Amino acid sequence: MGLFSFFSQKKELKDHMWRANLYRKQEKYKESIQAYVQAVKIDPSLLEAQRNLGWLYRRLEHPVQSIRHYKKVVEIEPDDYKTLNILGVMHEKIKRDQTALEYYEGAIECQPQYAIAHANLGKLHQRRNRYNDAISAYKEVLKIDNKFILARNQLAQLYLEQRQFDEAIKLYEGTIRISPDVWDHYFQLALAFNRCSRHERAIVNYRKALKIKPDGALLHTHLGRSLFLISDYSEAEVELRAALDIDANYALAKYNLAIVLTEKDMLEEAVDLLKQVIQSESRFARLAKAESGFRKLLSRPEFEAMTNIEDDKDE
User: Fold this and answer.
1) How many whole angstroms separate alpha carbon 244 and alpha carbon 166?
2) Alpha carbon distance 30, 7 (integer Å)
């Protein structure tokens, strides 16, 4: 290659990169891709262009093309642990779990303190029901960064599934100490207390969540259900009606209010609410059949008729 041709090619490469970066900043992603592609035709080892092509195809949800360019990146820089981790994520998207696992492990081998790769490995194991491996991966995350909330919550969920309630509760309580202003943290802790029938402790935490998110129909509903479980029917009714004041069509709140009203012998309103719920979401018919809170309705023909809706559809 002559000297003139060399400098001409350098200028052309610089122009392609300038346009590609400009288009990317302007979120003109297809035009940016075209310019980066021209750049890598001139210099396939251009790391910035290969990395940005991987990012752009990932942003446009084209995982196969994204993977191709990210692989080029790790060919150029084999110890790029962040890109190895991204390749794991992208292979999960195309349902290549074993390859994803190998990329996560490769990222961890390059940088053992890279908590995100450990967390992604944990999620992959969890999704494949390899619970012990998932727990080990999440524990590694927390050794690196004890404030990694996603890993804390995922590990707590695994402990709940294995009925290790105290371990799960400790994690959720720790999460609240780390980040006390997030309503969902109190909600998850309350759910954990419900799982082990410690409903009074659940109630305390639903109320704390409601101080942060007072318009949470979900929170009022779960609080109402917990109050029902400790036989505080009046307060349960207050909370469930509060949920319906926020969202008049919230089926779960209507369903639980019907249970409370049944217990309070307000049977006509209970039947009417239950009918509305089942008409909007037929799955509640089967739930109602198994719900002990509706025992006072069992002898009523309309209860049998409305809860047989799924059986009728199956015939």
Assistant:
1) 33
2) 28
Query: Under CATH, domain 222-315 is a member of which superfamily?
Result: Tetratricopeptide repeat domain (1.25.40.10)
Per residue in 173-184, pLDDT tens? Answer: 999 999 999 999
Mean local confidence (pLDDT), 159-183: 96
CATH 1.10.238.10 fits 148-214, yes or no: no
CA distances from 267 to 26, 51, 207, 280 (A): 62, 65, 29, 20
- Model-level pTM? 0.83
Residue range 254-266, pLDDT digits in tens:
999 999 999 999 9
C-alpha span between 140 and 38 (Å, rounded): 42
User: In whole angstroms, how far apart are CA 39 and each of 1, 24, 35, 45, 67?
Assistant: 18, 14, 6, 10, 18
Q: What is the C-alpha to C-alpha distance for residues 284 and 251, in angstroms, rounded to an integer?
A: 9
CA nearest 70: which of 59, 57, 270, 61? Answer: 57
| In the chain, where the domains are located | 148-214, 222-315
Among residues 276, 234, 236, the alpha carbon closest in space to that of 255 is found at: 276
Average predicted confidence (pLDDT) for the chain: 93
Q: Look up residue 52 and give its two tokens.
A: 């940005």
| Phi and psi torsions of 125, nearest 5° | -60, -40
To the nearest 10 degrees (0 to 180), the angle between helices 165-178 and 149-161 is 160
CB 158 within 8 A of CB 135: yes
In one letter, which amino acid is 238?
V
